[in-house]
Specification:
The chain has 241 residues and is an alpha/beta fold. The chain has one domain: 3-Layer(aba) Sandwich (Rossmann fold), CATH 3.40.50. The chain is built from nine helices and seven strands; from the N terminus they run H-H-H-E-H-E-H-E-E-H-E-H-H-H-E-E. The protein has a seven-stranded mixed β-sheet with strand order 3-2-1-4-5-7-6, sandwiched between helices. Helix 2 runs antiparallel to helix 7, helix 3 packs across helix 4 and helix 7 packs antiparallel against helix 8. The mean pLDDT is 90.
């Protein structure tokens, strides 16, 4: 059902880009349904862990429709959100226009960029976040290295994504939900079951919270921590450069 999105290199990037182009307009709505609205709470937790203060610089990688970027900017940070799917950025900019009417002083810019080749110098940002994006990259380790590269010394790196529960029964139930439940939502509300079946396919090839924590330590991150939700179905990886 997933359409074989998990392939190597540039071909995977092309397929994933096409996937997000197709679902961009309904992305937020289906995220609310499949997570029962909890993704919004988890993203607020990411923003708190990022700990940005007014005048600091924040980068939100794979920003999608921009909700996490807007949380960082609302905390007063000079924020840039980057994504490689123009359709997702179109939605993000439309949302920003509506938010700017209420919060006209937000310092937030969205730009098109490849997470594996971020167009920024080393050590530019006080905090770098990525929500539900690292798992989708053609090379997640290279993506994490790029995030580390553009983070300032003592800056915070915060990664939110689906997780893999340690409890075997809970993991099986969660994977059944991803295999059957979530694609049904995609079919009913987006007309595209395959796009949402991809979540399980990508997660099966992703080391999730334990692997990301190990990779952060290999990059010499300090204060590495994992914050898990609902027994590990979602998790935040945190580290300090």
């Amino acid at each position: 059902m997933s359409g074989g999105y998990y392939v190597s290199g540039a071909e995977r990037a092309r397929k994933v880009g096409d996937l997000f182009r197709r679902i961009a307009r309904r992305y937020d709505f289906i995220n609310d349904i499949q997570s029962f609205g909890l993704h919004r709470l988890w993203k607020r937790r990411v923003a708190r862990l990022a700990g940005v203060a007014p005048g600091q610089k924040a980068l939100d990688v794979c920003c999608g429709t921009g909700d996490l970027s807007m949380l960082l900017a609302s905390a007063g940070a000079q924020t840039i959100g980057v994504d490689f799917t123009p359709a997702m950025l179109d939605v993000a900019r439309q949302r920003l226009q509506r938010l700017a009417a209420k919060k006209p002083r937000l310092d937030l810019t969205f730009c098109l960029a490849d997470a594996l080749k971020l167009p920024f110098d080393d050590g530019q940002f006080d905090a770098v976040t990525i929500g539900y994006g690292l798992r989708n990259l053609a090379d997640w380790r290279e993506g994490l290295r790029e995030i580390w590269r553009v983070t300032k010394p003592s800056g915070r790196i915060v990664v939110l994504d689906f997780g893999k529960p340690q409890n075997r029964i809970w993991r099986w139930l969660f994977f059944q939900y991803l295999q059957w439940g979530v694609p049904i939502y995609g079919l009913l509300f987006c007309g595209d079951a395959a796009a949402y079946a991809y979540i399980l396919e990508s997660l099966e090839h992703y080391p999730a919270q334990s692997g990301v924590a190990e990779a952060m330590r290999e990059l010499s991150c300090r204060n590495v921590a994992v914050h898990q939700f609902f027994g590990g179905v979602a998790a935040i990886n945190y580290g300090v450069k």
